[in-house]
C-alpha cells in the first residue's frame, strides 16, 4: 500500500493549485471575500451542514471525488483539526496518485476545492466534527467518484 505523509500544516501558497483557504480577516472591520469561487452557469446554490465521525490516523483513502462544474466550500462549525487530501489531474483527467497531498488544517480555517479538483471526503481528527458546506449544483455529473488503490495517510504528529 502506498503511503502519503500528512503535512503538519497548510499554507495559502501550497494549497493554491487546489483552491483556497478560508480565513478570517486580520483587522476588525475588514472582510475576506471568496465570491469568485461561487456560482456556475445553470447551477443553483446548495447549502448543508454535516456531522463527521473522527478518523483514526494512520487512515486509508480508497476513493476520490471531484465536482467538474463548481467549487465546494467547507467551513468548520465544530472541528478541532481535519485532514484535506487532494490530487492533481493527469492529462486524461484521472487523479495523479503519485502527487497526492494531505494537510492538517486547524478548525479555525475553511477550504474551497476548485472545480474539478480531486479530493478525498473530509476527515476530522482528534474528535468528531461538523461543517457547513456550500456548492452549486444542477448538472448531471455534479459529483464524480473514482475508486483508487488504497493510500495510507501517515503522520508522526497524529496517532490514534
Layout of strands and helices, then pairs:
Elements: E1 2-7, H1 12-15, E2 19-22, E3 44-52, E4 59-66, E5 72-78, E6 81-87, E7 101-106, E8 110-113, E9 118-119, E10 123-125, E11 129-137, E12 144-154
Parallel strand pairs: 1-7, 1-12
Antiparallel strand pairs: 2-8, 3-11, 4-12, 5-8, 5-11, 6-7, 6-9, 6-10
Q: How would you describe what is shown here?
A:
It is a single chain. By secondary structure, this protein is mostly beta strands. It has one domain (2-25, 34-154): Jelly Rolls. Helices cover 2% and strands 48% of the residues. It has one helix at residues 12-15, and strands at residues 2-7, 19-22, 44-52, 59-66, 72-78, 81-87, 101-106, 110-113, 118-119, 123-125, 129-137, 144-154. The strands form two sheets. Strands 1, 4, 6, 7, 9, 10 and 12 form a seven-stranded mixed β-sheet that branches. The longest helix is centred in the first third of the chain and has 4 residues, at 12-15. The chain is globular and about 45 Å long. The protein starts with a strand and ends in a 6-residue tail after the last strand. The mean pLDDT is 93.
Amino acid at each position: 500500500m502506498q503511503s502519503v505523509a500528512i503535512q503538519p500544516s497548510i499554507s495559502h501558497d501550497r494549497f493554491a493549485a487546489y483552491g483556497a483557504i478560508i480565513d478570517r480577516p486580520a483587522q476588525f472591520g475588514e472582510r475576506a471575500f471568496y465570491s469568485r469561487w461561487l456560482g456556475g452557469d445553470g447551477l443553483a446554490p446548495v447549502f448543508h451542514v454535516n456531522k463527521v465521525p473522527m478518523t483514526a490516523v494512520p487512515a486509508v483513502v480508497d476513493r476520490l471525488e471531484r465536482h467538474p462544474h463548481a467549487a465546494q466550500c467547507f467551513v468548520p462549525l465544530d472541528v478541532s483539526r481535519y485532514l484535506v487530501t487532494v490530487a492533481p489531474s493527469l492529462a486524461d483527467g484521472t487523479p495523479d496518485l503519485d502527487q497526492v497531498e494531505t494537510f492538517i488544517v486547524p478548525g479555525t480555517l475553511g477550504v474551497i476545492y476548485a472545480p474539478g479538483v480531486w479530493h478525498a471526503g473530509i476527515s476530522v481528527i482528534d474528535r468528531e466534527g461538523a461543517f457547513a458546506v456550500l456548492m452549486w449544483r444542477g448538472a448531471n455529473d455534479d459529483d464524480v467518484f473514482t475508486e483508487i488503490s488504497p493510500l495510507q495517510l501517515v503522520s508522526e504528529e497524529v496517532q490514534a
